[in-house]
Request: fold
Amino acid sequence: MTNEKSDKKKKVNEDEIASPKGMRDIFGKEYYAYQGFFEKAAEVATYYGFRPIETPVLEREPVFTSSLGVGTDIRDKEMYTLKTKGGDHLVMRPEGTAAIMRAYIEHGMQAQPQPVMFYNYGPYFRHENPQRGRLREFRQFGLEILGTPKSIADALIIRTMTLVLEEAGFKNLSVEINSIGDKTCRGSYMRALVGFYKKHTSSLCSDCHERLKTNPLRLLDCKNPKCQELKAEAPTSIASLCNECRHHFKEVIEYLEAMEISYRINNNLVRGLDYYTRTVFEVIDATPTLLENGEPAAPIALGGGGRYDYLAKALGSKKEVPAVGCAIGVDRVIMSPAHKPLDPRILKKPKVYFIQLGSEAKLKSFTIIETLRKAHVPIAQSLSKDGLAQQLAIAERSGAPYTIIFGQKEALDDTVIARNMETRSQETVKLADLPDFVKHLKDELR
Ligand code: HAM
Reply:
């Protein structure tokens, strides 16, 4: 085979190397919108006493298989699992809570003053069917309070989460909330639920037939329209709550009312993960939204969470660790029409447009840019354009109040020309005087 032929064989077409389905590149304005959201969210969380944590993107499989629950879509259908060359079974994290509890146990954080409060941010992976607000790689901002059973922790999570969303422009939030009880009362609720669904097996979809046997609570998650109708008549978990759970739920609601957070008790809300106990909630943007075809869009959850008092034991801890948390779907926030992009701190408007002309100037230009960086003067520049007129036109459009021109003559004389873009006045500045000149420029640009 000739080289040419084998080269041809190796060539791939653009479709073959396109980003994987449901995963995407983030750049330009959108990148800054994500970064700005994260900075604001982290700032709010920090003021409320949360501290950052980052866990690996890959975890050992049991972190999720032992915690998310048999019969949940996330565990049974959506996990990206892989076997390493060394034979380890790893999972690309589908969610963050189990991993943070794993870290809490692994680092003996029970020994620290309780509760331990974390915020975290990063990418998560679920092999779902991509659609509106549903990606295979998506980003979450999460909050977790580990080590307290107190209802005020549930309220603090909801408060911090809604504040973050309000800062991001959402003015019409609604908290959907429910209590699914604990081990004292969950059994009697399950019996009531199974009893009800057994009377209606002929109207159930095939998945729900299975759920009835393996994990009856998941019957309430079913998206099939046939099963949705039944769901409305199913017994509610609130009706089966034991006294402690009822009291806890009442207190959470009282906190929400005291903070004037608008909420709605949603008896069907169980959430798609098995580790929850007592409080479960989702936050939706209640602003009416239209789809591209003009039809009203069904509201989607911007975030959700709840209490998970038994997760630590499911992960092998000897002691129970009562905990509560939430996660915001950041892609859903950024893609929502109600979202107000926030500039990240790193994004600086250029104060100076830097023009270099000719080879001599190009060589020395780095020294000038470094002088400006050290003086905290952000610049814009055009690396590949050579003509002065062309570059000045770009400088004009950039909105930078000053332009520094460094041409062949200036490179030989060790000077630059500084041009005030508003008055169009120009002055020649010696390179040695540039740091001083920039200092005075900085005051002027403030
Ligand atoms: P989750 O409800 O599965 O909860 O996810 C939280 C949020 O992440 C959702 O409300 C949604 O905004 C976003 N999200 C979920 N799946 C996708 C997807 N495929 N594409 C885009 N966005 C998505 C959890 O993950 C729990 N760990 C939350 C929690 C923290 N519970 C207690 N602590």
In short: The radius of gyration is 29 Å. The chain has a mean pLDDT of 92.
